[in-house]
């Protein structure tokens, strides 16, 4: 699936940035933890990842994040190149908005002169690296963990819409990126993991029980387990 939108996001500063890939449809099987679309997994082998980023610092942070995933995907090798040509094409072009990625092998449906993963420029190294981890997880076929059908989040839906919806991020995108639960027979549904890097951070005031989730800056044990399961 191609991106449904490339809207810029106008959120309160204490909310996690939203990315813009749509939830994929698929179905259910059991692994340790994680949520993935198993129709969109890469075949074993070498994946070329092109980096077209503004500076050496951003490039080094992106490489470090990709290597963290690579330690847990033994069936894949990532060949990183500084160019605009690759199986996964990462850029931080300021003419594009938002942090987003197509899901897994959907990258093959994108014209070769277009990126498959976009990162907004950010001088905060910790936040930028965490964003790369999240978006590269999508590039591997992983979906949003807060949309895991087994999640235990007690959403206050009116509060979610009030906090997130704007002219730049309409209600239908809030629904598809936060509240909607993916379904189908090719979805890897597993035990819910609130520490997953694929989980959005959110404050307690958007839930009925005032329980929020913090931003994750490293792969959780569950992230590592699902990556090894999918790419062993």
UniProtKB/TrEMBL annotation:
Q: Where is the composition biased (Polar residues)?
A: 1-16
- The residues covered by the Peptidase metallopeptidase domain are 38-175
Q: Where is this region: Disordered?
A: 1-32
Please name the Pfam families in this protein's record. Astacin (PF01400)
Range of residues in the leader sequence: none
Q: What is this protein called?
A: Peptidase M12A astacin
From what organism does this protein derive? Pseudomonas asgharzadehiana
Instruction: State the taxonomy lineage.
Output: Bacteria, Pseudomonadati, Pseudomonadota, Gammaproteobacteria, Pseudomonadales
